[in-house]
Amino acid sequence: MKELPIFIAANLSPDISNSVIDIGFHYQSAKSAQCSEGPDRQARGTLTNFNSWSATKQTDIDNAISPLITACTNIEIETD
């Protein structure tokens, strides 16, 4: 399943040249010797003025769900 980023917040004030956009997304972690691919991991990024990007891993979320992940298995959590 292809996942899209989640737009958490956007401040375009006073215009798009002075914007801050907060985005949640996930990425595929590095594969291991036992697995062809690593589990999905959570991250959050900020796009500033459409010319600067910074991102950080959300290890608190990853650590909370890590006990639910078995070796070489990705889980999907459905939300409504």
Structure write-up:
- The structure is a single chain.
- The chain has 80 residues and is mainly β.
- It has one domain (6-68).
- It has one helix spanning 59-65, and strands spanning 6-11, 20-28, 40-48, 52-57.
- A 4-stranded antiparallel beta sheet has the order 1-2-3-4, covered by helices on one side.
- The radius of gyration is 16 Å and the shape is elongated.
- The protein starts with 5 loop residues before the first strand and ends in a 15-residue tail after the last helix.
What is shown here, in short?
By secondary structure, this protein is mainly beta.
- How much strand content do the residues show? 35-45%
Radius of gyration: 16 Å
- For the record, the count of structural domains works out to 1
Largest sheet: 4 strands, antiparallel
Helical run tally: 1
What order do the helices and strands follow? Answer: EEEEH
Biggest sheet strand line-up: 1-2-3-4
* Secondary-structure-derived class: mainly beta
Low-confidence stretches: none
Q: What overall form do the CA principal axes indicate? A: elongated
Write the layout of secondary structure elements.
Elements: E1 6-11, E2 20-28, E3 40-48, E4 52-57, H1 59-65
Antiparallel strand pairs: 1-2, 2-3, 3-4
Keywords:
single chain, 80 residues, mainly beta, four-stranded antiparallel β-sheet, 1 helix, elongated
